[in-house]
Structures are given as C-alpha cells and as structure tokens.
Amino acid sequence: MARTTFRFVDLRLIAIGLVFVLAWAGIGYRLFQVQGADAAKLEQLGFDQRVRHETIEAKRGTIYDRDGLELAVTVYGKALIADPSLVEAPEEAAALLAPIVDADYVEMIQRLEGDGRFTYVARRLESDTVEQATAAIESAELVGFSFIDEPLRIYPAGSLAAPVIGLTRLDDGSGIEGIEAVMETELGGRPGKRVVERDQAGRAIPQAEFLLEPSVAGSDVVLTLDREIQYTAETSLQRGIERSNATGGSVIVMDVASGEILAMVSLPGFDASDRSTLDPATLRNRAITDVYEPGSTLKIVTVAAALEEGVVRPDTPFETPPEIEIGDETYTDHGNNAAVMTVSDIVAKSSNVGTIKIQRQLGNEAHYRYLDAFGLGRPASIDFAGESTGRLDHLSEWNNAAAGPSAAIGYGVGATPLQMAAVYATVANNGEWVEPHVVSEIIGADGERTITEPRRHQVISAETARTLRTMLRRVVEDGTGFRADLAEFLVGGKTGTSNKFIVETGKYSETETIAWFIGIAPIDDPEIVVVVVLDAPNGATDGGRYDMKFGGTSAAPIFAEIAESALHQLGVSPTHDGDD
Amino acid sequence: MTAGALPRSTVRPVGTRAHARRSPVVRPLVIFTLAVILAFFAVIYSRISLDRTAFELQRLEKEITVEQERHWDLRVDYARLQAPDLITQRAAALGLVYPENRYTIEISGMADTVGGPEDRWMDLRALFVEQS
Questions:
Q1: Which of A99, A284, A296, A395 could form a disulfide with A350 if both were Cys (CB 3.0 to 4.6 A apart)?
Q2: Which domains does chain A have, with CATH numbers?
C-alpha cells in the first residue's frame, strides 16, 4: 500500500494558498464592510467632505447723490490672509507687505507669529493694492499668504457728507451710522443659498452646483444731496469755524418747496474711507442730533403766531424799554433800541423786550399751538438715525410765569438745526410746512422706484408768510444780519445768539455762545433756506470792533457764501444788480 | 433505384463565414452590438462635451466676474475723479483761482436749468436700463 508523504514543497504551497485565501477573505470582508455594512455611512461621509452649503452674499446697494454720482458703492475687494504656521520669516514679510497694504508693521509681525493656521493680514483691499501685494509675494517667494474675496464699501467723495451717509461695519458690512444704518434693510439685500461640490483644493466642481435660493441685491438709494452745494457748504463752514475759533458747527441747505436737503454739514467730520483717523466724537451728525436753544431765530414763530391770530400787525407799535421783568426773570435788549418799535422793527433789531410783549398779547396757549405746528418737539424727518426730538415742554408744564416769554425769545426750547430749517422753510413756502428729507428715492433690484412723498401741512397763511419775509429782509437790510447780504440776490434771515448751556454744571456759560443765522434766498422768490450754527465762536472781527460770539458776526457771512454759491449752482437768475 | 429529389436536409452547414453573414439570427445581434457600442461612445462623448461646456461656462462666469469688477472699479474711479475736493486741488495746482468779480449772462430760454426729478434722472435711468 502506497504511503502518502508530504514534501516540503507541498507544505509551502499549502501555506501560500492559505495566505492567499486569508488575504482574499480579508479583502472580501473589507469589501463587504465598505460596500455593504458601512456603505450608507461612508457615502454620507464622502458627501459631507465634498458638498458644502454656502451663503451667497447679496451685493449692497449703492448710494447716489441727486445727479446719480456714487457716494457709497460696494466693489469686489480682497483680504490678504496668512497661515502663520507656514510663514518662515514674519519680519521680512511684514517689512515687505506692511507699506503696500498700509498696515502697522509691528502689528503685522504679531499676527504672523501667532498661533493657529489663519490670520487676516489686511482687509478691504482694492484691486491695485492686491496687484502690488501679489507681485511682492511672488517676487519674494513668500509662503503661506493668499487672498480671499470680500465686499469692499468705498466712499469715492471721501469725507464729503460723511456724517449724513454714515459708514458700515468692517466685518459683516452692515450699516452702523447715517443713511447706511437707517436704510440697512433696503441697502443690505437678501443673501442666497447654494449647494456646491468642491474638490480637495476647494475648487468648485462644474455641474455639481445647485442653487437653492438666489441672493437679492440691495436697493440703490438716491439722496437729495447736491455734491457741489455740499462741498461749498463744507468749505465755507470750515473757513467760518477757523475765523471764529468755534469748536464745531453745522449747516443745512434745504429746498423750500420740496423739503429736499441739498446739503447737510457737520464739522468736525470724518472720512469713512480712512478708518485709522476715525474719532467717535466726530461720527455724530450735529445737524440732527445736537439740540440748541435757538435764541432770537425762534422769534419768527412768536411773531408769525401773533400775526396769524390777528393780535398784531406789522406796524403795531410797542413800548420797548431796555429791560422787562417777568416773574423772577429780567430780560434785556442788546444795544440801544428806540423807545417805541413796531413789530417789524422788533424783528429787524431782534428786540427781546418787544418780542416778549408780543408774546404776552398772544398768550401761552396760542403760542404753544404754533410752536407745535411748526414741528418743534418732535423729529422733523424719518430719514435720520438718532434724530433728536428737541425740547418743547407741553403747555400744561408752562407753570413758571417766565416759560412763555422765555420761549418767545428762544430760551427754554431746544431745537435741532434741521427743525429750525423746517420752520424757516415754512415761512419761505407760503406757510406750508414740508417734511425735510434726504432720501429722494429707492430703486429696487428689480428696477422698481419708490419716490419719497414728504408730509405737508399748512401752518400759517401765505399772506402772513409774505409779511414775515418782508420783516426778514429788513433784518439783513438794516438790522443785525447785514453781513448776510448778497450783491446779486435779495436775501432775508434772522440772527440768533444764545448762551451755551453747559450740561456738566447745569448752568448757562458766561462766555460761550451758540451763534445762528437762518436765511431765505432769494427772499422775493424763495428757493432755499440755509441754516448756519456755530458752537462756541469767539474772538473779534473788523479790527476788534465786532465780537464773533454773535450770530450776526460769525454765522451770517457763512450764510452769504453758501447761499450765493448754491443759487448759482441751482441756476437761479440774479434778481438784483448789486448796485443799490 | 430511381434518383429522386433529395429531401431537404435539416442539418445546416456551420463554420463557413459567408453563411454566417447571411444568417438572419446573427445579423440583428451584430447590429444590436454595434448600436450598443455606438450608444456607449455617444454617451461618453456627450458626457465629455457636457463637462467641457461646464468648464467653459465656469470660465465665462469667471470672466463676467472679472469684467464686473472692472466695471465697478471704473465707476469708482469716475466718481473719485468727480469729487469736488479733488477737482479743486487739481485746479489750484493748475493755477486756477476764484474770480474777484462774477458776471452772470442770461441766455433766453435757458434760465430755468433746474429740472424736476424726472429730468435729473434721465441719465441714471438710462444706465439702469443698460445694466438690466
């Protein structure tokens, strides 16, 4: 009987066979795992690595001036980012890149030496800066730097009208001041959503992008501002502030018929394009946030009410002693006024005593009613963020005997320059109050236009308004506002000077004043109202003869410069040859 | 034995190419196979074409983005060049100054240059129409 013997070779074959069997079994098991048991889980894992849900940024709307020139526009900017773990020589890189991207050298080194794998080196870079930085990175063969897209808000006119336009946040681009904040809903648009498959390098895979919801671009906002008038107003006010050593000031130029704000200035201002110089104190728009006692400029309301109620006529005479005592208060007149003055004289010479006597004939109830009807004590417009309501105590709180008389000459009442612009525009617009506004229209992404329709109401008759304009002309012709006179146009207006109220002490300053001039131009056929307010002017003019703390000396010349230029800009024909 | 008509053989010769080509069963099979192969290549070709088109679309979209960026950059440059501050600086650099005296010339029919919102917006609306 043959005996079976295993040779060494056979054993090796068996071993190899076993290895193969085991290997194939392992592969089979793994195949079963991948394709069977864990298939769903692995499929989801791959899907998650490849597929991303992304937000599509909505393009922010543009802000235009009245002629369609961009005041604020969003462009496609870039941010320079770095992976600090890959940056080999932070000092060298910072020395090369900091001057190009206008960043701080030391801060950049700190960023590049930091932990983590991501840091912003510079943000909101414009295309030419990106090109320069790219060339520098490539030539120096710097590693670890790259660019990412991000929207960039640009203000092409620089600091022009900056407090009105406002500014946006750097991180999410939302508005935080001015029109940028008030119109955030309209300007911001609506972001969209998409699903996109990306490869290992982060590149989108073609045909693998699915739009879930398209983004809707923000609406464009058209302002009523006129760029040239705005510039004139800013430069004239700046010169006026320097002449009078004032701490600040504001100007409003308003179209009397439509209520459109042609210029609105608040100084000191800021340049939203240059964030390194931003001072929080300059962000506020003084023309709408700062409340001042309007002083003599408010006398026009007292006289308007008395004329409208038939209590006085322009030629009604009043005895005007140098001072008058009411309750605990003594009111005096500056300068030497005549012993008897007509209502027209009282306005021209800005007599406190005369105005108080008119108010006493008018009575508190009627006086308050007209102050309210002229829009004092509530925001004048809906276009401004943080607009102050001013201060007008309700009639029931006029308990003090001096409350009415003080209000008659502009004390105890707080008003913003915008509110006072609306008051004088009412006189210029034949007695109709028109809501001042700076947003002319909103143009949606679909082209739909929403045009602003300002609120309107009649306050005084056209006849009373005409009479008041005649009186305001006299203020400039032979009264306190003679420095506001123009050669080519007849203008009228009212000066105002009130002692500055110091919040810290709760008392009126002995030395600091608020100087006003509010004028109408041309007074015979009104087109614009110009409000000029100076905060704490001082010094002297004309060789020390005139104190700059008064509205007639410091604010009136600013009005003259702005009004003349604005009328020319608007194409208004001169009504006066300048010889008489 | 008389020679008669031979009965038709039920056995068909095989192995000859000519006969196979003529076979009514094989021909549809060949045609079907060819059609399948052609369809296969057509699908591959269409898929490649689609991919190429997708890449081309992606390239065009990128180009559109670049052109849009250029468009807005130019508009910003245009707006910057119109900034009154810049114009004043350039004018001063050229030696231009504000005149001491100003004269107004009125031309008949051109006095009222202040248009309404509709007139002011003719240019901008035309631009919006172009963009839409």
A1: A296
A2: 51-69+157-223 (3.90.1310.10), 72-151 (3.90.1310.10), 227-270+285-569 (3.40.710.10)
